[in-house]
Specification:
single chain; 174 residues; alpha/beta; FAD/NAD(P)-binding domain; 2 domains; three-stranded antiparallel β-sheet; three-stranded mixed β-sheet; 4 helices; 24% helix; elongated; binds flavin-adenine dinucleotide
């Protein structure tokens, strides 16, 4: 959004390819982009996504191919492509599993990853609890805690021996 607004002032042509009509930008910037689109200063290619690139023998970009959700394609001659990716979290069918949900996340017990239905556990970015940080490190720690909580369900009656790979090595695949 910011790049499009800035480049519209200097570039010969700016096209914004976006997968959906909504933008998660400041409303003022969205309004500015829309008015630039209305007067033809920016071309809005929506709902499309990046499909392919064309270049010349010197390795320079010559065109960007955008495709819509029905497989239709548009070829846009271009000198420069600025790719940005975004995230749109969607629980899909998981939303109907009867889990504890909190604003598009699964609310879990952080000590175990228990997700509100017996035997169902969740870890990673999909979960929420007080102090949750969306980090790889947090996901790994949650995985270890959940594995501990899940062990007695998978191996009832068996003792869980807590071990370090540092001292015990990595278990051989059986
Ligand atoms: C731009 C950016 C930079 C980041 N930088 C860092 C960093 O420097 N350090 C750090 O620790 N963390 C960083 N993070 C956060 C980190 O990427 C996440 O915390 C981590 O990837 C979460 O792992 P996850 O396995 O829970 O989820 P994800 O990595 O999001 O994996 C979920 C997977 O499930 C798939 N999926 C979704 N829905 C379905 C479905 N219905 N069926 C099947 N598959 C599905 C998705 O395609 C995806 O592959 C960054 C995140 C972003 C967006």
């Amino acid at each position: 959004m910011d790049w499009a607004l800035s480049l519209a002032e200097v570039a010969a042509h700016v096209a914004v390819i976006h997968r959906r009509s909504k933008f998660r930008a400041a409303p003022e910037n969205v309004a500015r982009l829309q008015s630039l689109a209305l007067c033809g200063a920016v071309e809005m290619i929506i709902p499309y996504q990046l499909h392919g690139l064309e270049g010349d023998d010197a390795g320079r970009l010559t065109a960007v191919i955008a495709s819509d959700l029905d497989g239709g394609e548009r070829r846009l001659e271009a000198d420069v492509l600025l790719p940005f990716f975004g995230l749109s979290q969607n629980l899909g069918p998981i939303a109907k599993w009867g889990l504890n949900l909190d604003r598009n996340h699964v609310a879990v017990d952080p000590a175990t990853g228990a997700a509100g239905q017996p035997g169902l556990f969740a870890i990673g970015d999909i979960v929420t609890y007080p102090g949750k940080l969306k980090l790889i490190l947090s996901g790994f720690a949650e995985a270890a805690a959940a594995a501990h909580a899940i062990f007695p369900l998978v191996h009832p009656g068996e003792a869980l021996h807590f071990e370090y790979s540092t001292t015990q090595g990595i278990p051989a695949a059986s």
